[in-house]
């Protein structure tokens, strides 16, 4: 269980259309990854077009890096393997070599495959100097060696997709192996509106719901913050209804959840604030 997930492409359940905003990021990933994985024959001639073997997604927390990774596997028709840097290093001290070898030999049998390494900084962060744990160092060296083995097999459709909120903590050797780096930014008002429309697509909303007002009222919110805000807002009619039932004003049989109002979201902001602050 050091691999947190192995999912075939038709079972991932997220595609690019489910991700609001990030249009440039999706376009870049399509060209770098989807196209070579779907049409490998177009990348096997000459020297200019080569399938990309390593991509880094970096940016503030909650901006959709994990979501992008999963959707990319769907779009590219690739199996999806997900591992998390911090669990690898904390749980598997000692077995580093064996596990890394197992991971890579397993992965190469699943090609086309995307290996998503979340928190890549904690697995492959800057070398920790004299105090670094011996097992972490071994794990890193082993990972790099296995990774180089894969990279040298031109024909194999295996992509390592790293994600981090802390790109400056990454080792130079890792940066070199992830030649394409894509910044996943916090959404501006217009992009928050796009995300909100996706998050609320299946909810019952008051008629003429003012998406633009909500987008303007959520400066600094990441996609993940917006999701949490929507969940908190959606609880308000539920709590109201339960309250009414408790008072005996409505019975369970004819309970009716009212549509969500802009004010539910404004009130919910007290519970869910933006996790990235500009105060620093
Ligand atoms: P972290 O850096 O904290 O791991 P992350 O960048 O990987 O975060 P995700 O885990 O992908 O972010 O996002 C968390 C959740 O927020 C998603 O499962 C999704 O519900 C929502 N979300 C984030 N960004 C978007 C977006 N652009 N469109 C729709 N939903 C989004």
From TrEMBL:
It comes from the Eukaryota. Residues 51-188 form the AAA+ ATPase domain. It is found in: Mitochondrion outer membrane. Signal peptide: none annotated. This is AAA+ ATPase domain-containing protein. It comes from Miscanthus lutarioriparius. The chain holds residues 677 to 956 of 984 of the full protein.
């Amino acid at each position: 269980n050091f691999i947190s997930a192995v999912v075939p492409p038709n079972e991932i359940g997220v595609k690019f259309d489910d991700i609001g905003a990030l249009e440039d990021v999706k376009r870049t990933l399509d060209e770098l990854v989807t196209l070579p994985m779907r049409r490998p024959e177009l990348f096997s001639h000459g020297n200019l077009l080569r399938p990309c073997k390593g991509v880094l997604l970096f940016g503030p927390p909650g901006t959709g890096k994990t979501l992008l990774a999963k959707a990319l596997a769907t779009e590219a028709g690739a199996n999806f393997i997900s591992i998390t840097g911090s669990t690898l290093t904390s749980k598997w001290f000692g077995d580093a070599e064996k596990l890394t070898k197992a991971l890579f030999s397993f992965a190469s049998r699943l090609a086309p495959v995307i290996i998503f390494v979340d928190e890549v900084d904690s697995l492959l962060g800057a070398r920790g100097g004299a105090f670094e744990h011996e097992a972490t160092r071994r794990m890193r060296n082993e990972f790099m060696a296995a990774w180089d083995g894969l990279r040298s097999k031109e024909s194999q459709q295996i992509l390592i997709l790293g994600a981090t909120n802390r790109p400056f903590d990454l080792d130079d050797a890792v940066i070199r192996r992830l030649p394409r780096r894509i910044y996943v930014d916090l959404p501006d008002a217009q992009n928050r509106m796009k995300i909100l429309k996706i998050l609320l697509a299946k909810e019952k909303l008051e008629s003429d719901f003012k998406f633009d007002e909500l987008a303007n009222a959520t400066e600094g919110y990441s996609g993940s913050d917006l999701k949490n805000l929507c969940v908190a807002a959606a609880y308000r009619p539920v709590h109201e209804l339960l309250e009414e039932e408790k008072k005996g004003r409505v019975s369970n049989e004819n309970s009716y959840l009212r549509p969500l109002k802009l004010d539910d979201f404004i009130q919910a902001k007290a519970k869910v604030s933006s996790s990235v602050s500009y105060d620093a």
